[in-house]
Design a protein that fits this description.
90 residues; mainly alpha; elongated
Length: 90
């Protein structure tokens, strides 16, 4: 594979994982890992969505945003991005 081909595969995997964790792994033909990232990302997204108050005024209150699940979702998302980038470069 040419250098530009490898770079475009890496970029495509990175963009897909940027949309949602696991999509880059599916692009890299890793369905089990992709499904794992997809499920874990979906669960943490659901937890964050359920924990954030629907009232916009309540969002300015201290502690209104659930930092624990949000941090966990961010870690899963970052891990998915890095993994998709590295695997696509092989």
């Amino acid at each position: 594979m040419t250098a530009s081909g490898a770079q475009s595969r890496k970029a495509a995997a990175l963009v897909l994982s940027g949309f949602f964790p696991g999509l880059g792994q599916f692009y890299n033909r890793q369905p089990v890992k992709g499904l794992l990232f997809l499920v874990v990302g979906g669960v943490f997204s659901w937890i964050v969505a359920r924990a954030v108050p629907a009232n916009p005024v309540a969002l300015v209150q201290p502690g209104a945003i659930p930092l624990g699940p949000l941090l966990a979702l961010s870690v899963v998302w970052l891990w998915s991005l890095v993994d998709a980038w590295r695997v696509a470069g092989r």
